[in-house]
């Protein structure tokens, strides 16, 4: 008598270290990951360089905040329409065209800096073009990933992306701080333009990737279909709302130049250390993410991670609270002038925030990629990218407005408390999100 076949036994991972299975099973995913994250190092260099450059030209935190605010509406439109393009055409071609536009905008920034053009609106215009193109690239790339790896590996792939992101925003700002303080913003922009070339390698080597189930006609009706789907997807909608809350009230990056100049001291190096600290936390949380793939209740995991994020942001504000400010400070001050104990505690708070944010991102990304059908994935990824990148830009305006009071500790302390309160409220009223099951992913 023959024995009936049995289902294979899945052995849970015992290691806490990141799962590298997506690299082994999908060389295409590995190439895309590697090229993207090399380019992202340069991109993060430019983010810091633009902020420092604008602060040098204006000595105004509000002017730094405007870098993000000016590009907000174009970026929102790019996310929505870029997602539609990803559902309408070969996703590889869409990403390549948008990547080219982003690369040319960085070359434009470098050219302006080398020619010593100090006209502020030109820098705003080029950073807006870069934001628009990068949004389309991110939207399309995220829609590509689930086609390259098995669904069971999506949390592992998200964690690997977290490592890449963490490395980029750790190395990029550190390099930017060193370059700006030694050879100037010109070389910083130029190095970004060179590193950007790696992104093309990861995309060019991909096969054609057309949406499954047929392409959409890129018109207004297809956009409406996306919003209709979102209206009927309470779990995806709640994940977006939670991220908007976290990024709007808990992203104090625009005060870093003023903190480096007026509060902690240390100038550009302090700005780089603070920015990199967030990335180090994200990086470490991904390195030790090996067992995240076994977490079943993703909604609860997102809630816990974002509440922790709010707590760490409030702690960062508390570190700044007793320090006051010094009108004699400058962004070009030597690092020797820094208040090292305050810098250490501030960096630890930001590292904790980065780790919590990354864990939240792992589960939010996995939820989106597994619960949304492929034919709709580009449009939902577009909304997701708008939330992820647009939230911090709204946050830039919030922080710039609050920081105008000269109370540089207030945005983070107040924002952290708001995040914890609102996230607990959102999850409490949405039972479906609390009970989201990774084994039965429903949008």
From TrEMBL:
It holds the Pfam family MFS_3. One of its GO terms (molecular function) is transmembrane transporter activity. The keyword Transport applies. It is a multi-pass membrane protein. This is MFS transporter. CDD domains: MFS_MefA_like (cd06173). It is found in: Cell inner membrane. The chain crosses the membrane at residues 32-55, 61-81, 93-115, 121-141, 153-175, 187-210, 262-284, 305-323, 343-363, 383-403, 409-429. GO terms for cellular component: plasma membrane.
């Amino acid at each position: 008598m023959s024995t009936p076949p049995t289902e294979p036994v899945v052995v849970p991972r015992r290691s806490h270290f990141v799962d590298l299975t997506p690299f082994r099973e999908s060389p295409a995913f590995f190439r895309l990951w590697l090229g993207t994250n090399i380019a992202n190092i340069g991109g993060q260099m430019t983010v810091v360089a633009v902020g420092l450059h604008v602060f040098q030209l204006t000595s105004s935190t509000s002017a730094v905040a405007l870098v993000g605010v000016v590009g907000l509406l174009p970026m929102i439109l790019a996310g929505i329409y870029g997602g539609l393009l990803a559902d309408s055409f070969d996703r590889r071609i869409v990403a390549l065209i948008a990547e080219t536009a982003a690369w040319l905008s960085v070359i434009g920034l470098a050219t302006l800096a080398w020619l010593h053009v100090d006209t502020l609106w030109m820098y705003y215009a080029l950073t807006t073009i870069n934001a628009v193109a990068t949004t389309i690239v991110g939207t399309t790339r995220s829609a590509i990933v689930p086609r390259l790896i098995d669904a069971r590996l999506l949390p592992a792939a998200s964690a690997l992306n977290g490592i890449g992101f963490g490395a980029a925003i750790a190395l990029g700002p550190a390099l930017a701080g060193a370059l700006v303080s030694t050879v100037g913003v010109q070389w910083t922009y130029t190095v970004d333009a060179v590193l950007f070339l790696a992104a093309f390698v990861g995309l060019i080597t991909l096969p054609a990737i057309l949406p499954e189930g047929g392409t959409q006609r890129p018109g207004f009706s297809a956009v409406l279909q996306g919003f209709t789907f979102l209206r009927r997807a309470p779990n995806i909608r709640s994940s977006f709302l939670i991220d908007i809350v976290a990024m709007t009230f808990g992203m104090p990056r625009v005060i870093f130049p003023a903190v480096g100049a007026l509060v902690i001291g240390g100038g550009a190096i302090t700005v780089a250390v603070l920015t990199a600290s967030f990335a180090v936390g994200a990086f470490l949380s991904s390195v030790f993410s090996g067992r995240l793939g076994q977490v079943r209740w993703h909604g609860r995991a997102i809630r816990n991670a974002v509440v922790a994020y709010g707590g760490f942001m409030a702690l960062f504000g508390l570190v700044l609270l007793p320090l006051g400010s010094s009108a004699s400070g400058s962004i070009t001050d030597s690092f020797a002038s820094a208040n090292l104990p305050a810098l250490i505690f501030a960096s630890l708070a930001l590292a904790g925030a980065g780790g919590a944010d990354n864990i939240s991102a792992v589960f939010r990304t996995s939820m989106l990629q597994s619960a949304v059908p492929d034919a709709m994935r580009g449009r939902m990824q577009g909304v997701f990218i708008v939330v992820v990148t647009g939230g911090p830009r709204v946050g830039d305006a919030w922080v710039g407005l609050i920081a105008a009071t000269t109370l540089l500790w207030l945005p983070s302390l107040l924002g952290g408390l708001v995040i914890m309160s609102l996230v607990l409220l959102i999850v409490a009223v949405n039972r479906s999100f609390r009970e989201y099951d990774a084994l039965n992913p429903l949008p």
